[in-house]
């Protein structure tokens, strides 16, 4: 039954259209269950065109991307184009039950959208339960032909995809505490840190003196990762497909869902060097995997010795190193696609974010505090993913009962967010968020400012918040409780980072601004996969503008329907809730 689709099945047609610089780039994604063996055991995983990671998509800015998804797997799936603006193509966002119902086994769907106004590295991934563990790949956007990079042209470009691997059937993955995985992979390979993969390590052959553009993606489900190359610096030139001021560093950290474009010059003596990743876990008191670095290899042409130099990795809870890298990079003002930061704000939101609790369901053993299970929340709302119809269809066809549009712009009450203590009944209530599918409605073209305040209600840790459909400016970034007077006067309205995913520091906050110029329903959620079922999520509904051209179009006629077939895999229900 399991059809392994060969690489040649991924056919690439680049049809040059009459406009010289825009093309239609077409791919076929055969999603099927295949056997892979990154460690010592073979495991059946869903994969695109038989590979882990899946195919790399390369387009130029301005191109139209067409991907035919043929679902021969046993899973319900969608494919999300993480970080792509989807301007006027919200139906193509691939957010399960937000913009579409999933593509069921033996069904097809074609995603078709333009990629405009962004250049760099993004990723595509499944957006249904935890299937993005193995259904993901790089999406590389180069400048239009004839347009240069805003940095010296690299000799070669190299995608580096970091992944998290559980050595068990992917369908059982959520029966394990989320951070505890069996390995991390670089481009599908576990390398010399694990017993059965010593000879299967990602190797990059380099020529002395040449400069390479590393297109780095953290596709791990649940772990932030540090990245270093022994004895070498790197120069960051883009984050989340937005150019930055060149930033020289010997270490970087990526949250799940983030990407970094960095130049790396082979300017050290001819030998072998490890490139290494290791987990960054900012949570306190949470089980963490061992801190072994996971290695790939840089091989200088002509190297003779066989023992690689290794980098010294930061300690796993090195918040200072992570924060320095994450907060010091600035946007490339005046660079391609740069737009000045909006000064005027139309919608101000203050959103508390963190983990709370939910009473343990009957006949279940929960491992959370007081015997409850964890529940994530934004402004004390745990987001419930709709089950019978996608939010955007409900919005478009005006069908009630799927969601409410009352997501609050403030938490239910003010408290000392980062030093939460239970002293009163009302404090105790704060630990139990309300379970709801709620959205915030925004007028077309308004500027939204969101202060995301990390709370310490259960545990403080970095949560990577990701916005669909837009990039946001990160105008504020700090520790402690956000002070609307003191901190508002320090916002960077000149050259902030512009990106789609940001780690909100443990016990800290970020201040984000975006312009709601794209009608549709857009998720804003934590990109730790384990925190999605916990409901660290909300949705924005951006209303139509004044013209047909600024309005949400009708859904494509073949948009997958939500007919529930109980025999299709959703996710097994554990009777021990180990989720963290
Ligand atoms: Cu990368 Cu909502 O996802």
UniProtKB/TrEMBL annotation:
Does the record bear 4Fe-4S in its keywords?
no
Catalytic EC class: oxidoreductase
> What cofactor does this one take?
Cu cation
Q: Which UniProt keywords apply?
A: Apoplast, Copper, Glycoprotein, Lignin degradation, Metal-binding, Oxidoreductase, Repeat, Secreted, Signal
Q: How is the cofactor bound?
A: Binds 4 Cu cations per monomer.
Note the Pfam families from the entry. Answer: Cu-oxidase, Cu-oxidase_2, Cu-oxidase_3
Instruction: Describe the location of the Plastocyanin-like domain by residue ranges.
Output: 32-145, 158-302, 406-544
Q: Which GO terms describe its cellular component?
A: apoplast
Q: Which interval of the chain is the signal sequence?
A: 1-22
The record's section on InterPro entries has: Cu-oxidase-like_N, Cu-oxidase_2nd, Cu-oxidase_C, Cu-oxidase_fam, Cupredoxin, CuRO_1_LCC, CuRO_2_LCC, CuRO_3_LCC
* Record field: catalytic activity: 4 hydroquinone + O2 = 4 benzosemiquinone + 2 H2O
Q: Which domain of life is it from?
A: Eukaryota
Entry's EC annotation? 1.10.3.2
- Primary location: secreted
Location in the cell reads: Secreted, Extracellular space, Apoplast
Q: Which GO terms describe its biological process?
A: lignin catabolic process
Molecular function terms, GO-annotated: copper ion binding; hydroquinone:oxygen oxidoreductase activity
Q: Which PANTHER family would you find in this protein's record?
A: LACCASE-8-RELATED, MULTI-COPPER OXIDASE
Regarding protein family, the annotation reads: Belongs to the multicopper oxidase family.
NCBIfam families xref list: laccase (TIGR03389)
Known role:
Lignin degradation and detoxification of lignin-derived products.
The protein here is known as Laccase
Organism, as annotated: Arabis nemorensis
